[in-house]
Design goal:
This protein is α+β, with helices and mostly antiparallel strands. The chain has three domains: 182 residues, Alpha-Beta Complex (Aldehyde Oxidoreductase, domain 3), CATH 3.90.1170.50; 397 residues, Aldehyde Oxidoreductase, domain 4, CATH 3.30.365.10; 227 residues, Aldehyde Oxidoreductase, domain 4 (2-Layer Sandwich), CATH 3.30.365. 25% of the residues lie in helices and 24% in strands. The strands form nine sheets. A nine-stranded mixed β-sheet has the order 1-2-16-15-14-17-5-8-7. It has a six-stranded mixed β-sheet with strand order 24-23-22-28-31-32. This is CO/xanthine dehydrogenase Mo-binding subunit. InterPro entries: Ald_Oxase/Xan_DH_a/b_sf, Ald_Oxase/xanthine_DH-like, AldOxase/xan_DH_MoCoBD1, AldOxase/xan_DH_MoCoBD2, AldOxase/xan_DH_Mopterin-bd_sf.
Amino acid sequence: MTWVAASGIMLAMSRIGPVRAAGFEASQTLPGTAASRLPGATAGRIDALAKVTGAKLYASDFRAADMEGWPETTAHALLLRAADATHVFTGLDLSALDAGARPAQVVTAQDLERASVRVPPFYAGDLLCPAGKTPLYLGQPLALLLFETFDAYDRARAILREKNPARFGAETGPVAQPNYAALRFTRVAGETPGAPDVYSPLIEGWISPGVFEPGGRPVWQPLPTSEGGQYKKGALHGEAIRAFIAAGAPDMFVLDRQFRTQSVDPMFLEPEGGLAWYDPRAKALKMVLGVQSPLEASEELAHLLGKAATGFRPERIESHFAHVGGGFGGRDHTPFPFYVALAAMFLPGRPIRLAHDRLQQFQGGIKRHAFDMHTQVAFDRATGRMRAFAADHVLDGGGLANYSASVAAVSATSAIGIYDVPKVDVTTLAEHTRGVTAGSMRGYGVLQTTTALETLVDEAAQALSIDPIALRRRNLLKAGGLTMTGNPWTVSIRTPEILDKLEAHALWRGRAAARKAAPTGTLVGTGVAVCAKDYGTGADCSLGRVEVDPQGRIRIFCDAVEMGNGIGTAVANRVAGLLGRRADEVSVARIDAFDELGLVTSGDPYTLTQTEQDEAARNPRWVPAISSATSASIGAHVGTQAAAEAARLIFRFGLWPAALSLWGIAQDDPRRFLWQEAFWFDGALILSGLPPLKQEKVAARAHEMGGLTGAMAHAFSRWAWAQAAFPLDGFEWVVDLDALAVRRGGGAFKVLDRSFIAFPPASYNRIGTSFTSSCGTLVKVEIQKATGAVRVSQAYSVLECGEVLTPEVVVGQAQGGFAMGLGYALLETLPPFEDGPGNGRWNLGDYVVARGSDLPIHALEVEVLPRVAPNEPPKGMAEVVMIPVVPAILNAIHDATGHRFRALPVTPDDVRRVL
């Protein structure tokens, strides 16, 4: 996709590759002839061979010599960061560097000011801390050192690791900055079942008490909200809920607990890296990047340099996107590409590489928020039903805002999990601190609040003498019930089945016997937890392009990013069910393949008013957003949507008419309208009573007839898909898309104007979550009394995710989520501030992640529920599989020891102290 950004810079974006390796293309292209494959089959993955042979290439794998048309030699950049955020930065002392280690250029904040670069609003703050100021946070960049040769760079890196060049003067204490968000979510249900809510965020809008100053002192100036919600009204209801809980009526059982969860690192395989070259003759900046949000990165780079001084403003930015070696949110809206671009602009004519090693990634990479939570739950003593819930959350957002406000909102709106609670009041505060920046990460705040909730439910079950699974069952939110923001889930609710599976499992039924049979010196316990996790953000979009050639070969392009989520295989399998053959080529992170759509957008899709949306939608090329970051478990649900709808149109208006022609079905034959009854099997199209038709024969006839053989599409979701009608073969055909271009026979793509459009209402921005998937986990732990060591010896996870596009990936995500959950519960932690990663001394010798020896590799059972109906679409599941693991482990530890831990991680020393 190529267009002129608002800054006036021409943007060109493409997927990097293909690169030849191991005898086949190492991009997302199948090695050899594609086999017919329908969704649900167990053989093959698009990227599997490249992955296991080392041919799958990431951004950090590239050097200038690998790029066609680039100079051969690569220069190198080193980003220096602050290990002090309480003293004035006075400058750098590079005298420790000998002649063989000196940089060709040192780029400071003064140089950025001279170059007139602009920080995009999302990343507000100094890109490089100026001399004379206290760094805003630990790990804030101070300077870029640019080296002509790798040897000089490598030598300087080693020297400066031992002799920190940053110099500091007077002590100032941490820099005071406004906090990132303060929100309150309150719901009061109607007095009788089915009655309208008395108060809810969906009715009144989201509310905030005002801007919070450092230290938490509120300034009572209500923040504006898109729908004008009034804080006072909501607060009165919220305080009444808290008074109801505090009164503690005799028929109520109340739990009032504090929880703390820690900061951790995403620990993806590939630390951040990038390559850039500014060609001053062509005035073009060319980059190789690996991010979760290609369009966002490109547009923000244009903003960064759009008003730069002469010599620092390119006329064109060409961004090439490679595979991402792990994301987990850590590469979603990361500022790292800015520094790659700046390195190139300050060393024009020379390709230059900036790549973190693991020490640098710990110091500068985006982290998970640490949470402090105060939670109160009131249960009815007779029935075990939850009557009221209140909580207060404080998140450590670190030095830059990033996604802290969003994580705070999601964690709050998910605070009551899978349960139906009539009175709820939750406040959430995302703080600015001097710590390393926190942002998007797997679980997105739901992990933390679910951990608190599911351990409280277990504690209540014990106090009320109710089986833990029975207590959960009594409180489940059922179909049609309302979440704490006042809206229903609009997808299948499978938690009753999950609880049945957990209850019937031998691990649960045998828990008492397992405790009794524990060897001398060992304690055994079993724990359970269940959760729901939203997928999507409320403003998600998808680009997909599908083409079928006369031989039946299929080519797919999509904008979703491959980051270990198997998106290439997922989109291929979803299309295969519609077009009868697995794709011969799938190319991901492609936002350059949709020019014919001519898409335009405006404003922020999260704050768009209905009036603004209605007016903008008059332009048939307008969409609320063009491309989403690959995040929030949206791969299967969002990432495949546009391609699936494109394939559905190709079948209906290309392959189906061709099949009718081959079968010789006349115009007046009612079988012409049975296209939804036809299906593919073993590469052939089947309709009852007619001979099977080979897919390639149908494709050839479609081309002969000039039928629809290609479609490129855009889809948008705000907790529901936008729907539009397009003129196709005499029909006004309604699809879950908002933009469409089609190709007939072997012709060119032509855009179609939509004759009708229905975008989801802007008021849906008030919804906390509408799409959700569920997972439950059982865990058995063995604890050594002498050492306090906790070992997970057996586990069972059961989940649901709608249509399973790639069974191997779903199970693999569940296994990986289990490992991450175990590490979070028992092993991983990053201290805040000066002892934490911002000091630049953290590496894997200090930061312990789960290894094979920590996991029940041969005793982890994963069960995936079949979808509820043949047409149920795929759900997102990559996050939900991690979340119940943590509280299940904590509940198992309590079952073994009788002690409840409310701070993570639980270490052997913690356990030994309470035994």
